[in-house]
Design goal:
InterPro entries: ACT_dom, CBS_dom, Diverse_CBS-Domain. With 216 residues, the chain is an alpha+beta fold. The protein contains eight helices and nine strands.
């Protein structure tokens, strides 16, 4: 799955000359925690609520509330934003975006094409994609199966589901410890008793079963 399929297009932005109270208002009114900073069509940084909090006078300061508010009102985004912005392209794999965000300890990546901002990808976008890939909310049955980590096991599993006229809508494999893997398979039917019985007879172990009702 590519970044462009999950990103938020045409995100809210500010410039480096935007005053901090204005940036906070944009964040609050639109329910976001980060904003790309765009100057003359180019991404020059990212501003977050954490950046603003770090630049705000400490509660232990001797400044009065009015003085603290005055100082914040004079601050511009360019003074406190994170720079340079770490960006990513729209045709990048989601996995690459996830690794980059994890390694850099950031929660948002501006998505840039031909030098221009075309969207943002966030931690929430990645979590939503993960949920969709595993089919957690889809109607049908999700089986979490422990199986031997050896050639032919997936072929055996898919053969059993096909035999019972069940369509696999989602499939994920996690290599576990020793010689076993964890397979998460989404099936388009709530009636999986016979499938489970045959999988068990084939040496697989059903660890968890989740049945989601069909949408009305």
């Amino acid at each position: 799955m590519l970044v462009k399929t999950r990103m938020t297009a045409t995100p809210f932005t500010v410039t480096s000359a935007t005053k901090i109270p204005e940036a906070l208002e944009v964040m609050t009114s639109n329910g976001v925690r980060h904003l790309p900073v765009v100057d003359e069509g180019r991404v020059t940084g990212v501003i977050s609520k954490n950046d603003i909090a770090a630049a705000s006078p400490s509660k232990a300061t001797t400044l009065s509330a009015q003085e603290a508010t005055y100082l914040i009102a004079k601050l511009t985004v360019g003074k406190v934003m994170s720079r340079p912005a770490i960006t990513i392209g729209p045709d990048t794999l989601l996995e690459e975006a996830a690794v980059l965000m994890r390694d850099e300890k950031i929660e948002i990546l501006p998505v840039v094409a031909d030098g221009a901002l075309v969207g943002v990808i966030t931690e929430s976008d990645l979590l939503d994609a993960y949920i969709d890939i595993l089919g957690f909310r889809d109607p049908g049955t999700r089986l979490t199966i422990e199986a031997k980590d050896e050639p032919g096991v997936l072929s055996l599993l898919t053969g059993i589901t096909a035999k019972h006229q069940a369509n696999i809508s989602h499939l994920a494999v996690h290599r576990g410890q020793l010689d076993h893997s964890i397979v998460v398979v989404g099936l388009n039917t709530p009636n999986t008793a016979a499938i489970e019985e045959e999988l068990t007879s084939a040496g697989m172990r059903i660890l968890r079963k989740l049945v989601n009702p069909r949408h009305p």
